[in-house]
Amino acid sequence: MAKLLLIEDDAATAEEILADLRGRGHEVAWVATGPEGADATRSGTWNAIILDRMLPGLDGLTLLRDLRGTGDRTPALVLSALGDVDERIRGLRAGGDDYLGKPFVLGELAARIEALLRRPTDSRETVLRVGTLELDLIAGTGRRGLRDLDLLPRELKLLEYLMRRPGQVVTRAMMFEEVWNYRFAPKSNLIDVHVGRLRKKLEVDGEPILIHNVRGEGFTLTPDV
Amino acid sequence: MSRLVRSFAFRWALGIALWSTLLSLLLFAFVYWQTAAFMQDELAQVLRHEARYASGDPAKAAARIETWVSEDLHSVHFAGLFGADGRKLAGNLDVCPPELPLDGEVHRIGTQVSIAGRRLHEELWSAARSLKDGTVVVVAHDTDEIDRAKATVIRALGLALVPTLAFSILGGVLLAGRAKRRLASTEAAVARVMRGDLRQRLPVGEAGDEFDRLAQDVNGMLEEIERLMEEVRGVGDAVAHDLRTPLTRLRLRLERGREQARDIGELREAVDQGLVWIDQTLEMVTAVLRIGEIEHGRRCAAFGPVDLGLVVSEAVELFEPLAEEKGIGLSLEVDGTMPAIEGDRSLIFEAVSNLLDNAIKFTPVDGRVRVDLGRRGDLFVVSVEDTGPGIPVDEREQVFRRFYRAEPARQTQGNGLGLGLVAAIAKLHGFALAVTESSGGGCRMEVLCPASPRG
Description:
- The complex is a heterodimer of chains A (225) and B (455).
- With 225 residues, chain A is an alpha/beta fold.
- Chain A is built from eight helices and twelve strands.
- In chain A, helix 1 (11-23) packs across helix 5 (106-117).
- Chain B has three domains: 1-197, no CATH class; 210-295; 301-450, Histidine kinase-like ATPase, C-terminal domain (Heat Shock Protein 90), CATH 3.30.565.10.
- In chain B, a hairpin with a 5-residue loop joins strand 1 (77-82) and strand 2.
- Chain A binds chain B through residues 82-86, 89, 103, 154, 180, 182-190, 193-194, 196-197, 216, and chain B through 275, 282-283, 285-286, 289-290, 292-293, 298-302, 314, 317-319, 321-322, 325, 345-346, 349-350, 353, 357, 418.
């Protein structure tokens, strides 16, 4: 699996992240300070870097900016304590590929790392196919097998997002950010209701399930054949 | 000493004294100059007249000179009639002063005179004219009188200067002292505020001058600070209270799970329930922090043109399935086209979402939630109205305060922060909020956006 570098100064947080990501089969190295992190980015090859915004010795964003300055494009996810939303913009400007505010659910981090590792394939594709599911982005039509799907514009976008990531867990926050393009944690079960509606259109009369609910994490679209 | 010199009061006193002294000196100089000039003019006219009169008729010149001299009781009149050869013909001047021009004008000269047989040197104001037969008439007057008068004026003015100076210093000290006393009481009040007593107010006088207005403004500021402090304290208490309830529940649930779970499944169930409560608690903490962050106005980096119509319709679209699931009719009416306004689209979306979330939460099954977007004068109005229980009139002001929950809301889940967040977002954007009753007897929330918010 992937080789990951975690730069996080809080040992308890790091321990949980390590246990979770290792449990998912990743190989994760951990360093606790900025300078150590900078050394590790230089000496090793990593599939992705997870780094805290505030690090002893060297600020996380400075580290990231330096790294990008050397032309290193390793995907990086910035972790940050709550309380500053402009922080997100700063994190992304410094060269972060994704940003996650603390506190977070481990499933959310894992899903986002997974997304970074599997950068969407070819986004120029205009016809997506997953199992018996087919989506024509130009015509704006979808089919499951021979059955035409009657999809609303937002449902089309949601399905496209899921179909570009088959077998990958996507969280509610990721969907809200990418499909609705707004950034805050929507309350209650809003996203679930939207996914539920989509599922009703995709899975009729005992057809095999396409969109699975991953408990405590999010949803995943799996091929039916 | 240097503290005294630096002191406002001392400098005021000194300044006032110096200024009034300078003014008095100017006034004195003017009075002196006018007095002296007047006396000299008077005398000069008399002398010019006498000289012309005496020289008018050569035959009577000697007699007229004698009359001028004899009219004088104080030995201040002098005159002389001198022959063409300079010999004295009449009068009490011994010699014709050689430097005196014979132009009939008045000049100040020093010459030899004889008074009661004694020869003296005198300073005189004199006028001289020559007669047709070559004789010269000199009419003169002692300078002592005018000099003495001038000296008297100067002495009087000089004497007056002393009390003037004294009074102006006194006035300065009094004025400055008054200012200083006002300052001192203000200073004392400020010092108490600095020590943390925010209930302290600056003394405001009755004069209504700049000083009083300043004190009033500072008092207004202190009131706002006190209000904010109270609010912070209130929020702190509310947070602590709202945290204790779920944490207590959590503790009990975990304890029971640990003691009584018979298998791993039951233990998981207890932990899962615990996680739900922790998430709710974290959600509340997040909301409190977000409100704080938005209120501090730190979130302006994302400001840009926002299509209000699009944002509102997307929010309605997001909630549509939820409303449908609950059997609530959700509708959107957009009146005309909406130009872009300046703001943070994500925050505006969040605010509208919170209003919708509330409306749907409090509307019973088969109710309606209606969103309107229209113009009212210079304002764009986003309104969300429902057919729920509504908010009592006397509670409408308070719903936007953090942690406030109207009575019907206490039965439903929520942390009382949703509308607080709406209020914070509205404040950041310069929007106004209004709560009224909807046509269906429910609640109507309005967001009033100026056409060009934030100036």
